[in-house]
Amino acid sequence: MTLVLRDVVKEFGGKRVLDGVGLEVGRGDFLCIVGASGSGKSTLLGMIAGLEPITGGTIELDGHPVSGPGPERGLVFQSGALFPFLTVAENVGFGLRLLPLPAAERRRRVDWYLSEVGLLPLANALPKELSGGQRQRVAIARALACEPSVLLLDEPFGALDVQTKEDMQVFLHQVWQDTGATVLMVTHDVEEAVLLGRRVIVLTSDPGRVAAELPVPLADHRQLGLKRTPEFLALRNQVEDLVRGHAQSRV
């Protein structure tokens, strides 16, 4: 699986929001995109998801142009966007109804992914009975159940409290290791990007361009204690300086 963006441009009402963005995501990668307000992070993810048309350039998945939404791209929003009238299991299995799968395979996937995110005992609960972190786990399980080529995450933990957010970061990293998923994540949290990503892309602001691409040469097994190490702190500071510097360039 390869996701390739070449010279991607996005304009709204004649104003250029993204200008010549290029990047490549390979199978099993975990790429995080950071940038200040106005860098077009979420807009870029929306175009990759097929929810926003591009103004110029190309977006291709396995050599095929992205022209609209599709099951090969799973998307998770900050809010989770669960269906309140469906149970946890029904939410996870919702997208599977659109795939040509036997009923037994749909049930197997729902049970497996609910088990993976630790929510199988709550399969019959409604979203209103869950905590914020649990709802995001359901949203991630729903996206993964269709076994997409790439999982797109739009600031998925931005609305959570600090402790729940950290728990979810460890959870997401473990799910990525367990499933071998390819992940492209947008976040405003530099520390989160460095903790989770194999690579970090920094976007400039107004318009958004790729300012830097930094590898994250840390152990694949990431735990919260890693954030206290000199290597982590140095990389976090480097990314923060890049984001801040390009945000200041707008003043």
Automatic annotation (TrEMBL):
It comes from the Bacteria. InterPro entries: AAA+_ATPase, ABC_transporter-like_ATP-bd, ABC_transporter-like_CS, ABC_transporter_ATP-bind, P-loop_NTPase. Pfam families: ABC_tran. GO terms for molecular function: ATP binding. Keywords: ATP-binding, Nucleotide-binding, Transport. Gene3D superfamilies: P-loop containing nucleotide triphosphate hydrolases (3.40.50.300). Residues 3-230 form the ABC transporter domain. The keyword Magnesium does not apply. PANTHER family: ALIPHATIC SULFONATES IMPORT ATP-BINDING PROTEIN SSUB, TAURINE IMPORT ATP-BINDING PROTEIN-RELATED. This is ABC transporter ATP-binding protein.
